Amino acid sequence: MKEYSLHSEIKSLYSLPGDRFEVRVGNYIVDILRGEMAIEVQTKNFSALKGKLRVLACRNPVRLVYPLPERKWIAHVNKDGAVTKRRRSPRRGSLADVFRELVMIPEMPREGNFSLEVLLIDEEEVRCADGRGSWRRRGVSIRDRRLLRVNSRVLFRGRDDYLRLLPSCLVEPFTNRELALSASIPLGSAQQITYCLRKSGILRAVGTRGRALAFQRAQGAP
Question: What does each C-alpha distance from 15 to 4, 80, 92, 154 come to in angstroms?
């Protein structure tokens, strides 16, 4: 997969004195090794790391760092790289969006050695109408993704960190639709959240309400 500027910018921003970069741990090369902790920066496609994270977590603390665009600017460039126009995307990202990726590795939160840090960022996406992009973008390709700023950071290390995503007004047991309404998120996002938290043993299904599954916190969850 193409590595955009965003990946190297996050690595540089996240690093601390004493960190080592591109280090072999077992059969894998990790982005950053901080003491015994293996740190992987992934801008999308968690499924590409599924096997790697599982193996690394058997022997090392592992942290997955994910920059999530909260606000995005789109810059259009010509074939020479000159900016022809720039606009702000109307879509605003939220923390719930991380579950679009986490559904690819839904069991990882139950691993004691695993943690996930989400960086909510402002990002610039550089596009070019060069005919090489996907049909969805009508041939417009994404030339680069760039970090503009980090707005906030959220660290998930255990059960309670994930459960904080559930609104305090949400009464258990709850359905996906009730979660979506109380959190003001799309139904699809609510379904992704409950899927991941069930797979990781943080939530459990406790029956149905009509045709919908109902969920509550699992006792003794990790």
Answer: 18, 33, 27, 17
**Paired residues of 117 in beta bridges:** 65, 155
> Where does residue 76 rank: exposed (0-12), middle (13-18), buried (19+ CB within 10 A)?
middle
> Where in the sequence is the domain holding 171, given as residue range(s)?
162-222
Q: How far apart are CA 53 and CA 50, in angstroms?
A: 6
C-beta of residue 95 within 8 angstroms of C-beta of residue 154: yes
Domain count, the chain: 2
* One domain for residues 82 and 187: no
Co-location of 59 and 138 in the same domain: yes
* Residue 33 CB coordination number (10 Å): 19
Same domain, 153 and 197: no
* 120, 136, 157 - which closes a domain: 157
Q: How far apart are CA 74 and CA 72, in angstroms?
A: 7
Alpha-carbon distances, residue 189 vs 78, 135, 157, 210 (angstroms): 36, 25, 21, 20
Residues of the chain with pLDDT under 70: 1-2, 133-136, 220-222
Write the pLDDT tens digit of every residue in 105-132.
999 999 999 999 999 999 999 999 877 7
Q: Cis bond leading into 173, ω under 30°?
A: yes
pTM of the model as a whole = 0.91
